[in-house]
Amino acid sequence: MFAEERVEEIIKLLNENQKVVVKELSKRFDVTEDCIRKDLKNLEKRGIIKRTYGGGVLSRKFAPHNDILTRKNINIEGKIKIAEKAYELIKSRETIFLDISSTNILIAEMIAKGNKKLIVITNMIDIIRTFSHCDNVDVIGTGGVFNKEVNGFAGSTAIESILKHKVNRAFIGSCGVNMFDKSVTTYDVEDGNTKKAIITSGKKVYLVMESKKFYYDATYQFANIYDIDAIIVDERPDELICSELEKVSVELI
After folding, report:
1. Fewest CB atoms within 10 Å of the CB: 17, 111, 155, 245?
2. Coil, helix or strand for 233?
3. 190: closest CA among 150, 130, 238?
């Protein structure tokens, strides 16, 4: 077994058990304990594990649980990079969905300043307001139960409205993506269920998110990575993440 294959197996074991032991790995892979320690040191440098006496533990964190007003002011530079990439993908005369996301607010602002003729469907108040004086964009709001924390609509009424539409591109926010158990997560259950419906409505589905979210988890899984066509990021993540994305045929933009 090549070193790279061994490291991948170690990561799978970490995701299954949350920890690994040097002696056990040495026997499992029939290599020296020093060899395993080098593997673990490499994984620690990449931020995947924290080494402990005799082994290592998985180093994933829960995503910060902030309201939308707070998120709007975090890492603006990175979110602008993501929004610019997303804007370039959108073609005139398309119908798109902009989900509840601080990055999607920036995409909406770019659309409002541009000249692309579009239909935009959204469940976010901030995005609806962005197009209030924009002649080239027709806006459809989903309605539904208003969620103050995310400043948008979520739940059964919003979902019923969303499922009536088919869109060329759906842009969706997420709190975290785990490429090893293939989960895409958020915190609010109703928001997550609404995101599920948006995924169903999109011919092409994009996650818009900062690269650091590949190392975060939230509490509610609303999708599997196989439900996603592409992920638009601010910067390229670790090569291991890129490799996992290639395996599941998810484009990294």
Report:
1. 17
2. coil
3. 150
Asked if 176 and 63 touch (Cβ cutoff 8 Å), the reply is yes
pLDDT tens column, 95-153: 999 999 999 999 999 999 999 999 999 999 999 999 999 999 999 999 999 988 888 99
Burial of 115 (0-12, 13-18, 19+ CB in 10 A): exposed
- What is the rounded distance in angstroms from the CA atom of residue 89 to the CA atom of residue 251? 13
pTM for the whole thing? 0.80
Find, among 117, 119, 74, 113, the residue nearest to 95 by Cα.
119
**Token pair of 65, please?**
């649980």
Distances (CA, A) of 253 to 11, 89, 138, 179, 210: 25, 10, 27, 16, 11
- Say how far apart CA 166 and CA 121 lie, in whole Å: 10
Contacts of 242 (CB under 8 A, 6+ apart): 236, 252
Is 213 in contact with 174 (CB distance < 8 Å)?
A: yes
State which amino acid sits at residue 148. K
Report the DSSP beta bridge partners of residue 57. Answer: 19, 50
CA distances in angstroms from 27 to 11, 13, 23, 31, 105, listed in the order given: 16, 14, 6, 7, 52
Six-digit token string for 154: 């979520």
DSSP H helical ranges for 118-231? 125-130, 156-162, 189-201
pLDDT digit string (tens) for 195-251? Answer: 999 999 999 999 999 998 998 889 999 999 999 999 999 999 888 789 889 999 999
Nearest CA to 7 out of 224, 178, 239 is that of 239
